[in-house]
Amino acid sequence: MSPVGAGSGQLAGQVAIVTGASRGIGRAVALALAQEGAQVAINYREQAKAAHEVAAAIREMGSDAISIRADVRREADCRELVETAVARWGKVDILVNNAGTALHRLLIDTTPSEWETVMAVHLGGAFHCTRAALPYMIRAGRGRIINMSSVWGQVGAANEVAYSTAKAGLIGFTRALAKEVARAGITVNAVAPGVIETDMLGELSEEERAQLAESLPLGRLGRPQDAAAAVVFLASPAAAYVTGQVICPNGGMAM
C-alpha cells in the first residue's frame, strides 16, 4: 500500500474515484488527476486490460492507482467500489461520475429497455456512487463531486433523446445536490463537453467529423484532455468557491 501523499502537485495526498475510466474522457481524467498528485481508483465494467493499463501508467508517474470492476447501475457494486478505495487509502476526496453509454436512435425506435439502460448508467450510476461516497466526505468536512454531462444535455440532440435527457438530468442533479451539501464543505459541479474525439464518434464518417470541426469557432474537435482539464480545475484548490456550476469545454459551440 502506497502512502497517501506520494507524488507532488496541487492534488497531492488526495484520493479520487473516476467511473468509466478505462478509455476516452474517463481515462484522460484519471491521468490528469494523477499528474497533479492524486491517488486514483480506476473504475471499469468490461475493459479490464485497458483499466489495468491506466492504473499502471499512473503508478509510473509516482502516484498510486488501482483498477476496480463495478457496474454503476448496481448499488452494491458502487458501494464496494467506494469501500475498496477507502480500504486502500483511508478516504475519498474526489468523485468523478463519468461512466456513460451512447444511444443513437430515434425516440420512436428506442425500446423501454434501451431507455432504462441509458438512465441507469448515467443517472443511476451518479446516484449510487455519490450516495456511497458522501458519508466519507461529510465525515471529513470536505469533498469534490464532479459529474460528466454533455453539451447535448444543454441543447439536445436529434436521434439522441435518451442520452440528452440523461445528461440534462445530471445537470439538475448537480445543481440540487450542490445546495444540499455545501454546508458540509462539499462542492458539486458538472462538466459539459462539446464534441470530443472518443469512441462515441465512431459512427461518424471522416467527412462528417470534418464538417463538425469546421462548424466550431475554434475549428477543431475537442480532445479528452480538454475535458480533463476542466475536471482538474474543479477538483483543485482554485475552485474552492465554485459549486453548482456547469463548465463547458465545447470549442465555442453555440448554445
How would you explain this protein's 3D organization?
- The protein has one domain (15-247): Rossmann fold, CATH 3.40.50.
- The protein has helices at residues 24-35, 48-61, 75-89, 112-140, 152-155, 161-181, 206-215, 224-235, and strands at 15-18, 39-44, 65-69, 94-97, 143-148, 186-191, 246-247.
- Helix 4 (112-140) links the parallel strand 4 and strand 5.
- The radius of gyration is 17 Å and the shape is globular.
- It starts with 14 loop residues before the first strand and ends in an 8-residue tail after the last strand.
- The protein has a seven-stranded parallel β-sheet with strand order 3-2-1-4-5-6-7, with helices on both faces.
- It is 46% helix and 13% strand.
- Mean pLDDT is 93; it is low at 1-5.
Defining key terms:
single chain; 255 residues; alpha/beta; Rossmann fold; seven-stranded parallel beta sheet; disordered N terminus
SSE inventory with pairings:
Blueprint lengths: L14 E4 L5 H12 L3 E6 L3 H14 L3 E5 L5 H15 L4 E4 L14 H29 L2 E6 L3 H4 L5 H21 L4 E6 L14 H10 L8 H12 L10 E2 L8
Parallel strand pairs: 1-2, 1-4, 2-3, 4-5, 5-6, 6-7
